[in-house]
Amino acid sequence: MRNMRLMWIAWPAFLMAGVMEILVFSMLDPSDLTWFGQPLAVSRQGIYTLAFFMFWGITMASSALTTLLSISPFEVNRCPLPARERPDGCPKQESSCC
Amino acid sequence: MTQKVIPIVTQPLDEVMVSLYEAQKKIYPRSVSGFFSKWRWGMIWLTQIVFYGLPWLEWGQRQAVLFDLASRRFYLFGLVLYPQDLIYLTGILVISALSLFLFTAVAGRLWCGFSCPQTVYTEIFLWIERKIEGDRAARMRLDSLPLTSEKALKKGLKHLVWIALALWTGLTLVGYFTPIRELLLSFEQASLGPWESFWVFFYGFATYGNAGFMREQVCKYMCPYARFQSAMFDHDTLIVTYDNARGEPRGGRARAADPKSIGLGACVDCTLCVQVCPTGIDIRDGLQYECIGCGACADVCDTVMDKMGYMRGLVKFSTQNAISQKWTQHQIIKRVLRPRVLVYTTILLVLCIGLALSLEMRSPFMVDVIRDRGVMSRVVDGDKLENLYRMQIMNTTEKLQHYRISASGLNGLEIESDGDESNGLVTIGAAQSQWVTIHLQIPQESAEPGSHPIQFVVQALDSPDHVSERAIFLVPR
Ligand code: SF4
Ligand code: SF4
């Protein structure tokens, strides 16, 4: 399940990062970019690559939030231990639900 | 009024999850030969000759197809495209999507089974696996054996070949964006640039992972198309079907036995159709979303039917309507021309013609004008009012070009540019673009204060083409 979720997060984000990349760089020449007034010391290919991973990071954060919100809060906050294995004195020892 | 209460049964979450995503069983597809397998290999050859070969094709002095990211030019045979030509890319993408809809409406997952890179590379990787480790039974046995030196050798060799092919694929892909001959040279000399190497390995790794390990899981869990394809299906779409009425009840029997007299259908329950299936499903359970329509099960079942001396086509491509209404081949073909297909085809044709026309009528150069951000307007030489503009001229031909810039729209408009020969003459090299600063002057007091629309005309001197661009001339109060 964990792998599944990781894939749901990374893969659509990858596709959308690709779309962003095309849209942004069709309108913007990386060699026109400046960093606090200084031209960047990275080649165009470098900027394409770095920007792609930046886009990917952001779109992944979005997918991650979607994934998180699609899980019910009970599931997120559920104790990972089955009821019987919870330590002595645990108030949730009796309930089998969460 | 009595209300019906629907009892809600709560299910422990874990169980639901586990049954939805069973632990994956490794699938060992058995090799198959037959009509569809021939077609699939034909398509594999075709798509891969194009993919691996295209970057090596030359056009004049350059690579025929090159999306030169470093210089932001896209060469497509005779065309030179600029990033500003994104609209054509969009057009091509829309056309591809529509073609996919059309194929899907007519023949189901034709794309998936025969030309999707995922299928194609999986098939190639499987072929390598089969050559080294043997067919299904041999591979299953090998995997169940403890690690011996022979097993290690076979596995190692397989991964080595896989990695070599994956790297070559990565290199080819990057070769669409960086000239491939230089790329290969620097690869051999181990002097590949950091970004190029990164993408070669990145794509190589993706190929190795997707075709070597993920395989059918990509189709099942990662492919968005596989999820919504059913929206494009109707009852006349070609799908792989098992003829239930003919096949059941299934069961083993002697070759000489007459199935009718022992109460059996045509299916001998050999399970070969399950063994060849790349997604590991049983087509006899009906159409399932995992089925990529590759036809492997149809091929293998036909060989079984031949052996038994039964009629072919127990598992075959057919449509839902054809099965339920027992249509002939001819009737199925007639239903291809139904409204949905005609609509898709019409839109597709209109778009293709539109794209071709706009490419044909495309001017051999493009012009962008912006006002200089620094200067609104100023007085020069005591009696002239000047506005500054920056103009980008993009030469989309592969020859040196000369242009004359002129302006109109106000009385006494004079042009002064910093091009090589001033007074509006500019020379631009093949497939180059250049920014030109234009000083536009009018006699002072010759125009009302305010903004006046004007027009720039750039005339090519080596061809009859010209481009006009609108701009604004500001006269201060
Ligand atoms: S290959 Fe044909 S005969 Fe064999 S199990 Fe499948 S449907 Fe039945
Ligand atoms: S069921 Fe048949 S057509 Fe569908 S994926 Fe399996 S082998 Fe291919």
Protein described:
The complex is a heterodimer of chains A (98) and B (477). Chain A has 98 residues and is mainly α. Chain A has a domain at 1-20 and 41-70. Chain A has 3 helices and 2 strands, in the order H-E-E-H-H. In chain A, strands 1-2 form a two-stranded antiparallel ribbon. The relative contact order of chain A is 0.12. Chain B is elongated. In chain B, the strands form 5 sheets. In chain B, strands 8, 9, 10, 12 and 14 form a 5-stranded antiparallel β-sheet that branches. Chain B has a 4-stranded antiparallel β-sheet with strand order 13-11-15-16, with no helix packed on it. The relative contact order of chain B is 0.10. Among the domains of chain B are: 35-229, no CATH class; 365-475, Immunoglobulin-like. Chain B contains 17 helices and 16 strands. By secondary structure, chain B is of the alpha+beta class. At the A-B interface, helix 1 and helix 2 of A face helix 9 of B. The structure holds iron/sulfur cluster (SF4) (2 copies). One iron/sulfur cluster binds next to helix 14 of chain B. The site of one iron/sulfur cluster (SF4) has 16 residues of chain B, from helix 13 and helix 14.
List the helices and strands and how they pair.
The complex is a heterodimer of chains A (98) and B (477).
Chain A: H1 2-27, E1 34-35, E2 38-39, H2 44-70, H3 73-77
Antiparallel strand pairs in A: 1-2
Helix pairs in contact in A: 1-2
Chain B: H1 13-20, H2 35-53, E1 58-59, E2 62-63, E3 65-68, E4 73-76, E5 79-81, H3 86-107, H4 110-114, H5 117-133, H6 136-144, H7 149-174, H8 180-188, H9 194-214, H10 216-222, H11 224-228, E6 239-242, H12 244-247, H13 272-276, H14 296-308, E7 315-318, H15 320-325, H16 329-334, H17 339-360, E8 365-371, E9 378-380, E10 384-395, E11 401-408, E12 414-417, E13 425-428, E14 433-443, E15 450-460, E16 466-475
Antiparallel strand pairs in B: 1-2, 3-4, 4-5, 6-7, 8-10, 9-10, 10-14, 11-13, 11-15, 12-14, 15-16
The structure holds iron/sulfur cluster (2 copies).
Residues 240, 276-279, 281, 283, 291-297 of chain B line the site of one iron/sulfur cluster.
